Amino acid sequence: MAEGATLYLHLDHRAVHDAKVACDRLFGRGAFLGEIIWAPGNGGRGARGFSVTHQTILLYARAAGERGQVVYNAADPMLREPFAETSLAMHFKHRDEDGRLYRERVLGGKAYRYYADEGRRLGSVWTDIPGMVANTPLRREGTGYPTQKPERLLERIVRASSAPGATVADLMCGSGTTLVAAARLGRRFVGGDRSQLAFATARERLDREGIAYSVLEVPEALRDGAEP
Amino acid sequence: MAEGATLYLHLDHRAVHDAKVACDRLFGRGAFLGEIIWAPGNGGRGARGFSVTHQTILLYARAAGERGQVVYNAADPMLREPFAETSLAMHFKHRDEDGRLYRERVLGGKAYRYYADEGRRLGSVWTDIPGMVANTPLRREGTGYPTQKPERLLERIVRASSAPGATVADLMCGSGTTLVAAARLGRRFVGGDRSQLAFATARERLDREGIAYSVLEVPEALRDGAEP
């Protein structure tokens, strides 16, 4: 992992816990930066108890262990959410000269002003990004690739942990959503996948979006058209 | 674990993954029933990346591994949530003679009718139960116990996985929220804790609620008033 880079690893509840233990061994326990819960909001409900309707994204960064610099663009509007209703009602009692509602807190002798309309930093539970399935507004994004993620999810991740000009790598890039999001946001990208379908889908999608790229190396297994 | 019983284990992101691996070893991987994400909705946002604003509850049941009977009271109104807006708009197009909106699906040659006003089974991400901190409506519940959970959280769990008359056990019962919820819902309860503060808080609370109980055994360590 490069200095300043954050690794996002997306898994479901059947695999995430073992993966966390394995990543702790690989990167060191201190490199664990936290986790995000993505609730796409759709999906069936099983008959036999609670259906698990979320997936987990584990975050690791070398700098987390060393108390070093972690890239996190908290001011990005996509990384903010409205203050809780109770908080708004209890704490935001002042208005500035432009009529904007704010709260003031004094911490360590220094006054901090929080504006209601700027919202608070996004927490770890993301319920505002619907999944691809059965959701009409997202159909135009669809490539038919089985595990395709919505662009908004990857856009938020790219915005959160990289600056324009940085390189975003997705080495299991599937249909290429991460690469498209990175390119649109002015990041450089590196994609990889061992699946022929992913390779073809991602290339076609980048071409369709008019995004320039070069193919560095095509392994033998992907040249003969066989799905490894 | 008793036949038909479900174990709920509540932890945060720093501990939950290791606990999952340990529980898999203890109960068998097949006994893992799923997990619930509880997002209390309040709490500070750290300066250094995504603040983790949720906690995880792991679910295990002997019967899960054996494909046996798992108690899950899905029809309980507290175990249901409104259908997603997109689903309501797309699928609920019929009205019955009482004017109730419904959707009909034919699965395996059999027609199933779903009523919009009954909602769908609750998913695994619970954002509708605020935590205890800085939340005025919950202050009357407060005992001052440091890790106290809201009664609504425990009430939902007790309703989900037990029938009236069943026994609910909380062997790290803290301030006794589980015991109070169980008693109110007509369940029998067994509580335990190795902390003097928990023991005193839970007893006082049960007394205040007028809930009858008997003390089976007070270990030596809890008799002398020392916090172990």
Automatic annotation (TrEMBL), chains A, B:
It holds the Pfam family N6_N4_Mtase. The keyword Membrane does not apply. One of its GO terms (biological process) is methylation. InterPro entries: DNA_methylase_N4/N6 (IPR002941), RM_Methyltransferase (IPR001091), SAM-dependent_MTases_sf (IPR029063). It comes from the Bacteria. Signal peptide: none annotated. Keywords: Methyltransferase, Transferase. Its EC number is 2.1.1.-. GO terms for molecular function: DNA binding; N-methyltransferase activity. Residues 2-196 form the DNA methylase N-4/N-6 domain. The keyword Translocase does not apply. Belongs to the N(4)/N(6)-methyltransferase family. This is Methyltransferase.
